[in-house]
Amino acid sequence: MYVFFPILVMVHYGDPDWYHKYVLPDRSHFLKLDKMAPSPPRNRSELQQELEHFKNLREERKSRRINTQSTSTDMENSTKPEFDLKSSETPRLV
User: Fold this and answer.
1) Region (Disordered): which ranges (predicted)?
2) Is the pLDDT of residue 80 over 90?
3) What is the domain partition of the chain in residue ranges?
4) CB-based contacts of 47, cutoff 8 Å, min separation 6
5) How far, in Å, CA of 39 to CA of 35, rounded?
6) 72 pLDDT band (50/70/90 cuts)?
7) For a Cys staple, 41 with which of 2, 22, 27, 47, CB 3.0–4.6 Å?
8) Which DSSP string corresponds to 6-60?
9) 49 and 58 in contact (C-beta within 8 Å)?
């Protein structure tokens, strides 16, 4: 029993006919092969286009990050209380 059951499972599921009958028809449904494996650029012009695309994405993320930081600092500056200190009342660091 302990020996024959694993052998029977391997024979049943390892059969190429079983694979072609049950696995291959649903394989394209579960695995999106065209999305999983993007093709690399094949020539110089495609490579330049990809580099330009990545450069644009990087600049867009950078500008978005700068905009969010500037708006957050504007909000922080507007919410900070302003103190009316005279020059004689300013705290000295030294």
Assistant:
1) 55-94
2) no
3) 11-67
4) 41
5) 10
6) confident
7) 47
8) HHHHHHHHT-HHHIIIIIHHHHHHH--HHHHSPPPP-SHHHHHHHHHHHHHHHHH
9) no
Q: Whole-model pTM above 0.70?
A: no
Coil vs helix vs strand at 88: helix
- The tally of CA atoms less than 13 A away on the side-chain side of residue 86 is 2
For residues 2-22, average pLDDT:
91
Mean pLDDT of the chain: 82
Exposed e or buried b per residue across 5-37, where buried means at least 16 C-beta atoms within 10 angstroms of its C-beta? eeeeeeeeeeeeeeeeeeeeeeeeeeeeeeeee
Rounded CA gap, 90 and 94, in Å?
12
